[in-house]
Amino acid sequence: LLRNRSKEEMLSWILRINLVAAIFSAPAFPAAICSMKKFCRPLLPSSMTKLCQEEQLRSHENKMKQIADELAEHKLHPVEKSLKSKEAEEYRLKEHYLIFE
């Protein structure tokens, strides 16, 4: 990916890349709400975060815990084989999203 003269230079690049990524890692907007029970992914912002680093860390930790709890709850209620394929697909999409996140 990157060629560097030394390990220190490589670590410097990694730190800068991570810093820029962190600056732009604002919390996601909530998913759209509608009358249908269809799963919708949250919208990702395209602007810089207004949170300080400590608040960002707390926000990310809270989000990880929330997603882990959601995944555990999701797996407690597996889709029945008798359900329509559309509902099974919705279940699979939500599970894929939660595992990926």
UniProtKB/TrEMBL annotation:
Keywords: Coiled coil, Membrane, Transmembrane, Transmembrane helix. This is PSD2 protein. The lineage of its organism: Eukaryota, Metazoa, Chordata, Craniata, Vertebrata. It comes from Todus mexicanus. It comes from the Eukaryota. The chain crosses the membrane at residues 13-34. Residues 50-77 form a coiled coil. The keyword Coiled coil applies. The keyword Membrane applies.
